[in-house]
């Protein structure tokens, strides 16, 4: 996975035959809301089933994704406000 800071997106890649191929692009912006966003740090859960990504700026949240164990693709399952100043 790769966080695209300026667009607040997460790119998912698959590695085959010595190269990477993008398989998914996930938007972390809040739909229908005009605000400053910025992708930040990402971490996986110890069991490898979840990906946590910070969305900085006005959004000020952590976005949680379920990781498909076969493909590595992401499914958003939760957004959590940090109720403070940027993560």
TrEMBL record:
<protein>
    <recommendedName>
        <fullName>6-phosphogluconolactonase</fullName>
    </recommendedName>
</protein>
<keyword id="KW-0313">Glucose metabolism</keyword>
<dbReference type="GO" id="GO:0005829">
    <property type="term" value="C:cytosol"/>
</dbReference>
<comment type="similarity">
    <text>Belongs to the cycloisomerase 2 family.</text>
</comment>
<dbReference type="Pfam" id="PF10282">
    <property type="entry name" value="Lactonase"/>
</dbReference>
<dbReference type="GO" id="GO:0006006">
    <property type="term" value="P:glucose metabolic process"/>
</dbReference>
<dbReference type="GO" id="GO:0017057">
    <property type="term" value="F:6-phosphogluconolactonase activity"/>
</dbReference>
<dbReference type="InterPro" id="IPR015943">
    <property type="entry name" value="WD40/YVTN_repeat-like_dom_sf"/>
</dbReference>
<keyword id="KW-0119">Carbohydrate metabolism</keyword>
<dbReference type="InterPro" id="IPR019405">
    <property type="entry name" value="Lactonase_7-beta_prop"/>
</dbReference>
<dbReference type="InterPro" id="IPR011048">
    <property type="entry name" value="Haem_d1_sf"/>
</dbReference>
<dbReference type="InterPro" id="IPR050282">
    <property type="entry name" value="Cycloisomerase_2"/>
</dbReference>
């Amino acid at each position: 996975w790769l966080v695209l800071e300026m667009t607040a997106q997460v790119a998912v890649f698959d590695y085959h035959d010595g190269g990477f191929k993008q398989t998914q692009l996930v938007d972390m912006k809040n739909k229908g809301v005009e605000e400053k966003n910025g992708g930040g740090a990402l971490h996986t859960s110890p069991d490898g089933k979840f990906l946590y990504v910070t969305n900085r700026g006005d959004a000020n949240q952590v976005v949680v994704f379920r990781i498909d164990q076969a493909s590595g693709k992401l499914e958003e399952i939760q957004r959590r406000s940090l109720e403070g100043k940027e993560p």
